[in-house]
Prior knowledge:
The chain is mainly α. It is about 70% helix and about 0% strand.
Amino acid sequence: MPLLAPLAKMIPVSVLLTVVVSSCTHRPLPECRPLMTILNQGNDLLKNIDLNDGKGISQTANSLKLLREELEKLPVTDKKLQEFRSEFVEIYQTLGDAFAQTSEAIALVNKSTVEVTLPQVKQAQVKVNQARLSISQASEEAELRSKQINDYCQVE
């Protein structure tokens, strides 16, 4: 589908760069493990997303929202880990919003041609392009933060 072609090419390159190693045993910070467990769940969601499935994209957006809420509630006393947590809350918010926007665009395009006008299709393309940019930026930020949290927790 031409509407999603640019997004489909970009996802494997940028979103999947967010790899957080699941073990944090090398650092005496017990708060690393629960934080990284949630981040790994987010990574798994992003690795398994089907970009041609509007419903699946919507479910991913909802799952990211739940993970974001779980991150917000996670008790963290270490100042640096609090920063990482806050940054990933923002990243998951951005990604969730972008996937929700993409899902809406897919739903619009999947309607019968009688119900969808050319301006609506063009608007859907604009939404997908905006979502693509948001996903790309959030993915770059997530990759950087993942490396930093791995270094901080001394994950090898």
